[in-house]
Amino acid sequence: MSVGDEQPKDLRPGEPLWHLAYRYLWPFQYFRDVTRGDRFERQQNYRHNRAMRVHLPGFMMKWVILTGLCYSAGGGLCHVGADVLAAGCFVAACWTLIVVVLLGVDWLWLGRFTDVC
User: Fold this and answer.
1) Residue 3 in this model has a pLDDT that exceeds 60
2) Which residues constitute the domain of residue 93?
3) Does any domain span residue 15?
């Protein structure tokens, strides 16, 4: 096998589109639970989460774009007269905005507090 024949680890042949979108948009799968285990394990999990903190701004940007798209779609549908669909878009935009706020708080928390115990 030559160097050019290697496939990246993230490329999974036959992966469904919904699973790829999940990995692209949902950051919480990359973080560990710091409420389980003994003190040493909790500290190691928190350190892992602090190391993964650098990826949160990228995820926040994806969710900000998704929020803007939902608000724009809702505004466009409101002008067309599809008020029920516009309301659905605005509700989805509020949910995506909540995810942006949650990611921002996580990013600030992990940057401010260096240790949990």
Assistant:
1) no
2) 56-117
3) no
Run of H or E including 72: helix 56-80
CB 26 within 8 A of CB 66: no
Domain count, the chain: 1
Predicted TM-score (pTM) of this structure: 0.76
Q: How far is CA 10 from CA 20, 28, 62, 67, 78, in A?
A: 10, 17, 18, 26, 40
39 within some domain: no
8 A C-beta contact, residue 81 and residue 9: no
Helix (H, G, I), strand (E, B) or coil at 16: coil
Cβ neighbours of 65 (radius 10 Å): 11
Tens-digit pLDDT profile for residues 43-102: 888 989 899 999 999 999 999 999 999 999 999 988 888 889 999 999 999 999 999 999
Cβ count near 53 (within 10 Å): 16
| 82 part of a folded domain | yes
Mean pLDDT of the region 40-44: 89
